[in-house]
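Comment thread on ticket #2218

A.B. wrote:
> Attaching the input chain for the structure job we discussed in standup.
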Amino acid sequence: MMDTTSRPRHPGTAHGRRRGPALPGRTLALVTALALLLGGLLAAPAQAAPSASPSGAAQDGQRALQPVVVVMDYSSSMLEKDADESGTTRLAAAQEATSTLLDNAPDGADLGMVVYGANTVGDCKDITTLQKVGPTDVGGLKKRIAGLDAVGETPIGAALLHAAQELEGIDGEKSIILVSDGEENCSEPPACEAAQDLAGKGIGLTVHTIGFKVNDAAREELTCVAEATGGTYVQADNATELETELQTKTVRAFQGYVASGTPVTGGETLHSSPQLAPGQYLDEYERGETKAHSSADGTLRFYNLGTIEPGERAHLSALLLPDQSQPTATGDPFAGIEVQLVNGQGENCSSSDREYSHSSDGGKPIVGYVRSQEYTEPGSHGCFQDGTGQLFAKVQRFGEHQAEEPMPVELKFVVEPAVDESTLGPHADEDEAPRSVTLSGAAAAVAGGGSFNEAAEVENRTVLSDSVMPNEARYYRVHVGYGQRLNVRAANGASEGAGPDSVDVSVFSSVRGPVTMKGDRRLHRRPAGQTATLNMPVSVSMDNHDGVHGQDAYLSGDYYVVVSADKYSDDRNREPFPYELALEVTGQEQDGPLIAEPGAGRVVDPDSEQDAGEQDDAEAGEATAGATPAGEPDEGGGGAEATATGLTEPAGDNPWPWFLAGLAGSALIGAAALVLTRRRPVAAPATTQQHPASPGPGSQYPTDRYGTDQEGPR
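C.D. wrote:
> Ran it. Output below, let me know if you need it in another format.
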């Protein structure tokens, strides 16, 4: 069982590492919200056998915008001609705002619409459902809205209860957006009393209110309705403001993390564990600790990672996913994940013993990451002294937060190719100087993804605006090549009324390891105008893989910038926190290191046709003689796809893309048949593979051995 004595003993968020350096956190853009997309990948079928192969498929469930019912006031006062200086009626302004909302809502958004006062004079029961909650027939709904008049009363309380009934049976968080130009005049029941009743049901319903040209009494009433359910009140004094606020409240809904990966169940003991090929997997851990830091009885799982060759390094990240729909309150215990690599004898093989991550904030990524030790020759002291190269992953959930609730764990396994050590220089002996990010110009609205798998791709030198909600995180990815350095500037927008108390900006490497950044990574809700700048300590370089400076960011690829929300009190609202990011990658991208052929003493440059394509008859015969026997799994011939794992490179003169792109038909693939028997099985029994003592002089690694492709994570 894992030792827990050195885990942090205070709630909060941390990335920790034992026996190693500590790991260090404009106006709301409406278009960002409108760019949100629904859905997820279909779940891959569960596997009964204790082995798995990567597929990139998503687990059960699809991410969707929070279900929303818009309740619109069609009382007679909406005929007032004061929506703008041109004398537009409030009704026309509301209809135009609704039409714009429908035009910009994401495909498949679960929207409903209720109106009151549109049919009968003096009737407090005049409440109509125009659109049931679900995908919207935009054209049809627009026609129905255009045919309505404003003739009736203002039964706000009854309309809220009616809208809540439209949301019955829908699990998770959901919202009502109420637009009214006056106060309740029916009181069947009173508006605030109805809202309090809904709040007391504990059904995850939030009511946001928009006062359109309202007086003080209506403003007070609509504020009471919103606050009773943890929602927000805003005022719109003209048609433009109404259109803006309606879109903001309706379309910017909570976006939770949807995990992706081939389903797998880890073993309860080391040698009963399933064997994994490089790729991405999804497990479920049943429980956390019964008492933080002392019981160490959280779910413990093992995975057989097969063997690695001299010069290779294995990377493993484990992402723990609490239920983000549950609010976090002050003093909540945290949830955490701890990972370690071990050999067949259970001895530590991790570069820094073991690593853990924990958080009490539902949106912050809880990622435990490790890489393997340097390979040592058989007979010497170290993890691989038995000569097998065998590795296992040991992963344990800890912490009291949602301890009795099962949590998904997303596993990412990458094998880093061996490089020609003679081409490497000395590692950096100090950090580079801090660098300001001076990018200027208007920010482009960019909707960050809800997970590593769906991170929004961002070009270098981009200034973007977005927002994040409590218990949520937004993910962006940007390419950082060898010789380059990522610099990030973050600024808060009009965030004084936001739900989160602050936001945290974190950076993760191409293999999902937390990256130590220089500078302040946190922005608070107030005052407005705060700016924070983060820099990579040194440029990305393979030279630093064994140094103190830059050892957590020595691989080229897609790096992740993650903005997550902190919420210290449970009485704050669900209003998004607006922010601006400026992403700048400095330095000229350089060619990466040459890939070494383990054991052969020869460097294979994949850009060289001669190196990649020369094969003699003897080598071909050797490959044939060593082909996979009938009945045994053949990684190269059976159609299992390699999952993208983050070691991404742009096409060009760099030799790494041959390993990272997985391009069919390349000369490298032509040489793959020579090593079929040495490939890692895709779905093999949980047995220990023997590490070949001396690979043949013509052998090369197949591209999919490393679980990489050109496009990066999916």
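A.B. wrote:
> Thanks. Noting for the ticket: The two ends are 33 Å apart (CA to CA).
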